[in-house]
Amino acid sequence: MRQTRGGGLSFMRTNRLWVTAFLLAGLLAATVHARPARAGEVSIAVAANFTDVTRELIPLFESATGHKVRVSFGSTGMLYAQIGNGAPYDVFLAADTKRPEKAEAAGLAVSGTRFNYAYGKLMLWSGRPDAWTDARSWLKRGAFAHLAIANPKTAPYGLAAEQVMDRLGVLSLLQGKLVRGDSLSQTFQFVVSGNAAAGFVAASQVKAWKGSGTLWEVPQDLYAPIEQQAVLLGRGESNPAAAAFLGFLKGEAARDVIRSYGYGVE
Fold first, then answer.
1. Alpha-carbon gap, residue 198 to 149, rounded angstroms
2. Looking at the DSSP assignment, which residues form a beta bridge with residue 115?
3. I need a surface site. Which of 31, 144, 196, 199 has the fewest CB within 10 A?
4. Smallest Cα–Cα separation from 94: which of 147, 149, 48, 42?
5. What is d(CA 64, CA 87) in angstroms, rounded to the nearest whole number?
């Protein structure tokens, strides 16, 4: 009898173990199927004027999607040169339409993915309070040592600054006083450090700056519109995180942040 009972208990315990194992396997399978798609990573190249906005957008995007972002900032021309030389970027946020168009024509970007994500605004800014009462007159007098602009050959905001000075008739007068930053970030630093009395910079940079100073919002009829385009690069064509970032950039949450830094949006 003891042997029979022992055998019966052993059989029942074995059955319970099998049932438990079966239930655990089912639960594990359901958990695996319920998990979201594996998070990815996107590498983006961003024009320097959009630095502060991007730093605010990245955590919003990462929180919403689970994807991670690697970012490089620089002048639009410099970033385009890097892309042409094989830099491993998935997405390009330029400060113009020219380079994204060239990237598409050269087969570096995916056709049909370009769109305007922001419209830039140019500011003349000095870190000194009361640097001028009338900016046009101040520029025409030229009573300062240095004026900072971004390199017009690589930075669209630098080109816009040249257009402003040309239309005001002061470009030739100020040529010897101009200091040119490799990017708009460096241009802004020339003014912050006091190495330039003032500089033509982006509205977004001034809005992000916590200090004081003197500001002139340059009328937009003095320079060609600064249309800033984003494009999916060939390397990012099969990367879901890259597609997700561009989709996020078109969404209202991103557009609200972009507007808050003084940019126009469509």
1. 9
2. 230
3. 31
4. 48
5. 27
